[in-house]
Structure formats: C-alpha cells, structure tokens
TrEMBL record:
It comes from Aminobacter anthyllidis. Keywords: Amino-acid transport, Signal, Transport. Belongs to the leucine-binding protein family. Residues 30-359 form the Leucine-binding protein domain. PANTHER family: LEUCINE-SPECIFIC-BINDING PROTEIN, PERIPLASMIC BINDING PROTEIN OF ABC TRANSPORTER FOR NATURAL AMINO ACIDS. GO terms for biological process: amino acid transport. Residues 1-27 form the signal peptide. The keyword Transport applies. CDD domains: PBP1_ABC_ligand_binding-like. InterPro entries: BCAA_transport (IPR051010), Leu-bd (IPR028081), Leu_Ile_Val-bd (IPR000709), Peripla_BP_I (IPR028082). This is ABC transporter substrate-binding protein.
Amino acid sequence: MSRLINIVSKVSVALVMAGVAYGTAAADDTIKIGVNEPLTGAFAASGTYIVNGAKLAADQINASGGILGKQIELVIEDNKSNPTEAAAVAEKLITSDKVPIMMGAWGSSLTLAVMPKLMQYQVPMLVETSSSSKITKQGNPYIFRISPPSWVEAKIFQPLLPSLGIKKVDFLGINNDWGRGTITDFSAMFKENGVEVGLAETMDQGAEDMGAQLSKIKASDSDTIIVTTGVEQLTLVLKQVAALGITKKIITTGGSQNPDQLIQQAGAAANNTMHMVFFAPWDAAKTPHPDQSKVFIDAWAKAGHNAAGMTESYRGYDGIFVIKTAIEKAGKAEPEAIREAFWGVDVPTLNGNVTFTKDGPEGKESGQYLAKGTLITIKDGKVVLPSS
C-alpha cells in the first residue's frame, strides 16, 4: 500500500512539474508589454488615443514577425486618471502580469505616482506623454521619456518669439504637475527673453467653469494667454473665452489638444488659436519620416479611428516601436537588459529619431529624448502649418 502511495505521489509531482513547465512555456510564447493609461476619468479621451496608437504598432510588429521571433502582447490597464490607481496598476502589471517593461502613464501626476514602483521592482517604463520636468530629474534610472518635458517645449518655443510679437503673457494651467510645471518652465524662458510674465491662474482637472480665472485674465494688460490642459477642458476654456469677448492671443502647450477635435467641439471659438503639436499629420511630406507617417496615417484611417486623434495617438505608436527596438537590442525580454538597451537605441519615429540623453542626478539618470515640435494655427475651421 505504501509503495502504491509512493508511486501515485511521484506521478502527481511529475504532473504538477509538467504543468508548471507548460505554463512557463506558454508564458514565454509572447513578450508582454504593460500599458498603463487613463481610459476613464478626466483624461480618458487622450488615454484611449494612446492605447489605439499602441495597438496599431503592436499589430504591425506582430504581422512582421514580432520581437525576437515572438509575438508581443499588450497588457492594457486603466489607471482611471487617478495617481493612486496608476500606482496600483503598475504594481499589478509587474507582480501579477510579469511584464518586463511598461508604457505610461499619460499625465505627469500619474507617472510620478508610478515611479516609486519602478524603483521598488526594478522594471523600466517608457513615458510617452507626461511633461513635468520632475519626472527625469528625481534620480530614477528606470524612466525613459519620449515626450518633451516642459523645459524642452519652452526651448522649442523660444525661437518663435520674434515672429509672435509677445510682450506680456498670462497663464491658465491645469492644477497638477503638468500645468504647474509648464507655468514654471515657460515663465523662466519668457523672462530670459524679455517677455513680461503676468498672472498664473490654475484650474482643477474636473472644473467646467473657468469664468473667474478668465475674468481676471481679461482685465489684465497681457496680450497672450498660455493655456495648458487636456482637450475636453480646453474646449470649455475656448468657448468661455469667446463668451467673455476675450481677444488676446491664445497658445496651448503640451501637444494634447488635438486641433481637429477642437475644431469639431469648439467650432468658431477655436479660430485664431495656436497649438504646439509634436506630430503634424496634415502634411505627411513635412514630417521627419514621411513614408513612416503615411503608414501610420493609413492604418489609423483603416481602423476607423477619428482623424483628430492622430496628434495624440502617435505617442503610443512611437512608444511601442521604441520598446521593440530596446528589447531587440537587449536580446531578451528581461527588465534590466531592456533598461540598459534603452541607452543605445536610435529609432526612427513619427516625431524624429529617438535617442536618449541623461537627465537627473549622476549615476541615477533617467533617459530623455529631445523631441521636435510645430506650432500650428486654426484659421476658418482649418489647421494651418507654419510654412503654409
């Protein structure tokens, strides 16, 4: 009897081990990439665009043979536009889904909330949108960002000052790390270039009535308003600016305003406003890699997505291709190998060729790509590029 029990026990152990081995093999059949984005809440429209861009990239990569001979699997989670949720999502992706790399988390406050988890578990994240300068200056070597921080965007904006004729600016920014960071970095750039800085008004991310802030700005002697917020709130701002009869120049920052969507949602209130974008799909021939841009634009249309989303969704698309290159360079889908490989990538993307420079405390630097930008104008319900 004891001999029979021993045999059964050995068979059971063998079956369990076989199951474990099979499970490992099954897990190894794909390379997982975590995607931590706001799909509900205040930033849902933008987060959805990012995810749709990422899906297009994943489909194209898989159709071309995947990465290292394996298909990639996007593990997509909703951070609900909430920093606490963003951190919880990151932990779930790392500990439960076992992703070796993440992309996220759209907003600066969301990304900053995730960063301690990256350090704790030593897993890298490709930051596709967040612009707070804090992100790459805190000493987190697991951060690699392809979006421009507000100081880079201010640097892109500086050469435009003579043609814009700005004498004094007021700010209206969302009251989070993104908006406050923009006000700080743009204020410094303006002051260094002889432009007077006036009011710095903020608005909560869920606010719908900005009348009090806009009334103060209307009464000031500024000639320009710099606005920083997502497309839904920006639509409300533009409509309220028109209702109050404010005629000052309006310029938005951050590249998350989707000009075509503003035209659709704000109508005539969007006319004569100016917007910094980091991918200009209205003329693929003028983008850094026209053939690549055409592939993306055609794929976006074929998928039936709203054309207005391309100025946002390109970030998710570019982000997945940068991650692909890092994994290929690493030769394996392991967190530390991918982190090291990011430093050596040179990837043609819709914004330009992505390489990373070091930013932050020595020995603990984050990677920052110095992105390119274009200031477009909306005239008579159409987007006008600078040279047109």
